[in-house]
């Protein structure tokens, strides 16, 4: 097909990435590390360039008036998409398709690791900010399949998550983030169903030779920092393969050794054929050790460079049975005092939003004569804030009561303390998502003089400890997903 239609787009989230670079591995995708994410219309992704233009301005009757432009750097990749909030019964525990995004927003470890942000139980699934005190967060990649083109965004990080409380809408989260590189991959397709199988171009096996020119003694082989035990100059191919597989960074099946054995003149080299899934592997080095006779050498050469496969493996398919949540059922509870013992206000919403930001910034070199690439990123201040609208309704525990109490205390309160709980889908409903912010600062609600008088409530979530604000605490927000466990 010559056109790519957005309605056919598919997005996959994968933690099957290189632990250092965050680049998606060409193989090894499983239903435990790669997941299809159902995204809404409006998805975008792009990588722009930074440029510099040199201009000439000179005097005289015939001035040179030209200019010269340079691409100076590739900017980080920008991506954005939205998902619905859809709690569901996962069989034993409550879960959600977007759980992997929540976890990547607030943690380094994947779900099921030592310190994830997301946890599941039979009655509720929870996401916390406790483990987000990190310079860098969980590395992941996005795989984007279109009708005739496929793209991968490597080394991604989530920057913001925005929850919208528009009354005439289904509960959604808008996610934005950045990545180190955007690349197009060819020959990639994916099946449909509960388990998705990727079909991509196969890789090329890397082939190397080790030529031993000796008549006695031993030598060693080093692969990516790991060194074998001493090997006899005339070791058999099978024994060399066993010695290589004994290294912690070579698994059985990674390499096959044939040929040999070593001897004077090196006429029968050993051949190392690597699994095509590994792509371009590092060339081993040797140490001649105690080799004697002949040239007393063990030389390594690469005869065929490996090429990584486009993508091989499986992914967990999307779930279409989870219920949707209507924003119009949402409720807001505001309680004065961080300990929750003050006046409780129950306010019906007319709209609003909640934005969570990691304030990510990238470092990009500025070397001359090259197109500089993003070097790395760092998280900034974790900020959680929002704006809610409601009608100005009379009553001591309604919006007018909140406004009256805040006005009365405004001259004496430097940091007015409130507990804010937003129940998307309604606090009394079985299927809902709660945003619990136990320590918030509220600004005095602004009055909007429309046909029905309204108020605008702005809040900022803070860390807290022992019923007091604590700027060093990482407990500003707890997200809870509820669904009946059947």
Outline the structure in words.
It is built from three helices and 38 strands. The strands form eight sheets. The chain has a 19-stranded antiparallel beta sheet that branches. A four-stranded antiparallel beta sheet has the order 21-22-17-24. The longest helix is centred in the C-terminal third of the chain and has 11 residues, at 399-409. The two termini are 44 Å apart.
Short description:
This protein is mostly beta strands. It is built from three helices and 38 strands.
Range of strand content: 35-45%
The helix content is under 10%
Name the overall outline. elongated
Number of helices: 3
Q: What Rg is obtained from the alpha carbons, in whole angstroms?
A: 30 Å
Notable traits:
486 residues, mainly beta, 3 helices, 42% strand
Write the layout of secondary structure elements.
Blueprint: E1 10-14, E2 34-37, E3 44-46, E4 49-55, E5 67-74, E6 77-84, E7 87-89, E8 94-96, H1 99-106, E9 118-120, E10 124-128, E11 140-145, E12 150-164, E13 172-179, E14 181-185, E15 189-190, E16 195-199, E17 207-213, E18 218-223, E19 226-227, E20 231-232, H2 237-245, E21 255-259, E22 270-274, E23 285-287, E24 297-304, E25 312-316, E26 331-336, E27 344-348, E28 351-357, E29 361-363, E30 376-378, E31 383-391, H3 399-409, E32 417-424, E33 432-442, E34 446-448, E35 454-461, E36 464-465, E37 468-469, E38 478-482
Antiparallel strand pairs: 1-2, 1-11, 3-6, 4-5, 6-13, 7-8, 9-10, 10-38, 11-12, 12-13, 12-14, 12-28, 15-16, 16-25, 17-22, 17-24, 18-19, 18-20, 18-23, 21-22, 26-27, 26-32, 28-31, 29-30, 31-35, 32-33, 33-35, 33-38, 34-35, 36-37
